[in-house]
From TrEMBL, chain A:
Coiled coil: none annotated. It comes from the Bacteria. This is Sensor histidine kinase inhibitor, KipI family. Keywords: ATP-binding, Hydrolase, Nucleotide-binding. InterPro entries: CT_C_D (IPR003833), Cyclophilin-like_dom_sf (IPR029000), PxpB (IPR010016). GO terms for molecular function: ATP binding; hydrolase activity. Residues 11-212 form the Carboxyltransferase domain.
From TrEMBL, chain B:
GO terms for molecular function: ATP binding; hydrolase activity. The lineage of its organism: Bacteria, Pseudomonadati, Bacteroidota, Flavobacteriia, Flavobacteriales. It comes from Psychroflexus salarius. InterPro entries: CT_A_B, Cyclophilin-like_dom_sf, PxpC. This is Biotin-dependent carboxylase uncharacterized domain-containing protein. Residues 24-284 form the Carboxyltransferase domain. It comes from the Bacteria. Keywords: ATP-binding, Hydrolase, Nucleotide-binding.
Length: 248, 284
């Protein structure tokens, strides 16, 4: 197969605001991957850190925010293009593997019935399918510490609830369309809730998120006793949850 | 003890220019809703632009000072009382221990600001003192909250005049840039967006201002993508939502416009039923 022109990996670069430029990538390009995107993000931050306030990424875009008003958009656009397309040494971004212990008991999986009615999935199949694959964390958005994960298996696709719940408790694991995610803090929300993790995804004291873009995660079914034990340990010392992270 | 909140009113909080370091952790930028007013107030006092100020929504707030300093109150049009006597917005006043400042009535706009010489002394979280519930809840001011500032001995004999140009017309014109999903709209919807008059609904807060009118369109939701304060989202139900300072950092609704910083400030001051129009900030 002939390699597509490298430059076509950039779909477009547009001025987003007075201080921000949005770069959208062709996610179907052979060279495009989550790792590639995160490498480019680091590359931009390292090379033009003196000009930047922040670069935030989503599935297929980077939003570059400068610490000044952009007067010469075309100049910045050319500079960004060059930085993105020039070969650079691959970074070791140190991607981690993380286990998310999850209790799928009825008490927590408040929308399991929806999967039974609409997808003809037994509770067992729901757990098997959801915990039977790994997911990548593409980015953190929506709420402090909320991970956007790669897709669930097709049998688990289920749209959001038509009427969002006023309160979903922190740790709730849900599905919305093809996405699965974990509510880091109490919040209103419309995702279909299938379980709950005792882990703390947003440490409001230290202002740290448990997960980071690039992590590979896997949900591990646990029973209610294990849930309570882990939760109690974390309440004593939040560092207890680091045992679920594999840094290698 | 420097300043005590006697009455906070509907919402009062410490704000500055916000934080960008949390964007990749899902933490909003936050910061002052109307950066024009806070910047003027800080400039008059000779403070840096990012000096923390008290942001007040609505009217009724009351504060008591426990040591002397210089203050500037910033408002579009408000009755402000210092020890019961009216004072002017955008002018320096010296206050002493026991003095009481009362925001009696806000005649125009939504947000007003109290700035003190050298800014309020409050810790920073991720490079900013701005209140945001999940990050810095202590920066929210309730009745009896206490905030510090440094006593200022400085003299303001020669006051630098600051031109506070703030016009507020019957129909505000929001200047904006086109965002990626705008071009996917039909010509007629594009035309309506740029020519019709809209109005602000009752749903307004630090996260977003919603528009009352709905417009039908055929756009589908997008893959979750970055958004910023000032981004105009077009929901599948045809609702227009203008994101404000505490907006989430990513969104799945089509993004059609991005307001200029000045227009975000103008919109921030708009009350429910205020009429508005969108117009392009740059020729295309």
């Amino acid at each position: 197969m002939k390699l597509k022109d490298k430059s076509t990996i950039i779909s477009n670069i547009v001025k987003y605001s007075e201080r921000s430029i949005l770069i959208t990538f062709d996610a179907n390009h052979q060279l495009f991957s989550l790792d590639w995107l995160l490498q480019k993000r680091s590359w931009l931050l390292d090379n033009i850190s003196d000009k930047l306030l922040q670069v935030n990424s989503t599935y297929n875009s980077l939003l570059v925010t400068y610490n000044f008003t952009i007067n010469d958009f075309y100049g910045e656009k050319v500079a960004l293009r060059q930085l993105l397309l020039n070969a650079n040494e691959p970074y070791n971004l140190g991607f981690r593997s993380v286990i998310i212990p999850t209790c799928y008991d009825d008490e927590f999986s408040i929308d399991a019935k929806e999967f039974e009615h609409k997808k003809e999935l037994s509770k067992q199949d729901l757990i098997r399918l959801h915990s039977g694959q790994s997911y990548r964390v593409h980015f953190i958005g929506f709420l402090p510490g909320f991970p956007y994960l790669s897709q669930v298996k097709k049998d688990l696709y289920l749209p959001r609830k038509s009427q969002p719940r006023p309160k979903i408790s922190a740790g709730s694991v849900g599905i919305a369309g093809r996405q699965t995610g974990i509510y880091p803090v109490n919040s209103p929300g419309g995702w279909q809730i299938i379980g709950q993790t005792p882990l703390c995804l947003f440490d409001a004291k230290e202002l740290k998120t448990f997960l980071k873009a690039g992590d590979t995660i896997r949900f591990k079914p646990i029973n209610r006793n294990e849930y309570d034990e882990i939760k109690a340990e974390i309440q004593l010392d939040i560092n207890f949850q680091n045992r679920f992270v594999d840094e290698s | 003890m420097s300043l005590k909140v006697i009455k906070s009113g509907p919402l009062a909080s410490i704000q500055d220019q916000g934080r960008y370091s949390g964007l990749t952790m899902g933490i909003p930028i936050s910061g002052v809703m109307d950066s024009r007013l806070s910047t003027y107030a800080n400039r008059i006092l000779g403070n840096p632009k990012q000096a923390p100020v008290i942001e007040i929504m609505g009217q009724g707030a009351k504060f008591q000072f426990f040591k002397s300093t210089y203050i500037v109150f910033a408002a579009l049009d408000a009755d402000i009382l210092l020890n019961g006597k009216p004072i002017q917005a955008f002018e320096i006043y010296k206050v002493f221990a026991e003095d009481v400042l009362h925001l009696k009535r806000v005649k125009s706009g939504m947000w007003t600001y109290l700035a003190v010489k050298n800014g309020f002394q409050i810790e920073q979280k991720m490079g900013s003192s701005s209140y945001y519930a999940h990050v810095f809840d202590q920066a929210k001011l309730d009745n009896n909250s206490i905030i510090d500032f440094n006593t200022s001995a400085e003299n303001f004999d020669e006051i630098s005049t600051v031109n506070t140009q703030l016009n507020f017309s019957e129909v505000i014109e929001l200047k904006c840039f086109k965002l990626p999903e705008f071009k996917l709209l039909s010509n007629s919807v594009q035309y309506q967006l740029l020519h019709a008059e809209f109005s602000i609904s009752n749903q307004i807060d630090r996260m977003a201002y919603q528009i009352s009118e709905r417009l039908d369109h055929q756009l589908e939701e997008i893959i979750t993508s970055p958004v910023l304060p000032g981004t105009v989202q077009f929901t599948s139900g045809g609702k227009l939502i203008i994101l404000m300072r505490d907006a989430q950092v990513t969104g799945g609704y089509p993004r059609i416009f991005q307001l200029t910083e000045d227009s975000i400030c103008q919109l921030a001051q708009a009350r429910p039923r205020q009429k508005l129009k969108f117009s392009l900030a740059e020729p295309t």
